[in-house]
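Researcher: I'm preparing a figure for a lab meeting and need a structural model of a single chain. I don't have an experimental structure, so a prediction will have to do for now. The sequence is pasted below. Please return the structure as tokens so I can convert it later.
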Amino acid sequence: MKKKAILIVLFSILISANIFSQHPKSEYKKYFDENREIFISYGFEIFLRLTFKDDNTFSTDGFDYHFCDGTYSFSNNTIKINYPFNYIDKGNVKSLKDFGLNGDKASEIIIDLDKSDIFCKGAYISGDKVFWSDKPSEPYKEYIFEGIKCIKYPIRIRIKENLKMRKTPSLKGELVHLDYYNKEKEAYISDRTVVFKNEEYKVLAKTLTEETIDGITAPWYLILVEGAPQPPDDPLCEYVWIFGGYSKILE
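Model: Understood. Here is the structure written out token by token.
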């Protein structure tokens, strides 16, 4: 029992020291060099930025202000934010928490090259925060999108009939309501609940199983639908599920 306890303790120490990193150091270094800035956006304008500089210093900045800087070290897959800081604006200490950082002690940010969701692969893990890379995740693999298991399925489709947009892939799924502006017809449609015939969409994912509706067997597709423009002229977009049986695959 004593030997077993010692082994468990040693295993825990190795894990905490990131000894079992699954990739060569060069891959983590490459990821770090390509992702030296972490951004947080709020709405359309306000944002926070954490920047790692070549001289092993970092800075954290708001939209129009600077609130913290200090030093960091990088080893294997871990960035250590040293404490105390060179400078901290006490009024903005809470903003450090948005990056998963501590305001009163050292922090660590872990690079996880294998972490994936339906959009991206590779991320910084900082406390309870996840900051994704821009690298797309692998297609034709199973992922979970908002609690629903699906397969990433990058195809384009053309809608053959007006189809209702739903929040879940089921005829019982709640309808999605979007205001819509058709630029070609210069027409504003309030409370749109369908995608229209002959519209074309890029599919993000499809369901694991198919469903038979009106004698047609097909999966449900997850697509991004654009709503009416919002300030400052960016459209309100939403991911919706549509039944794939009334669409044509273009590629």
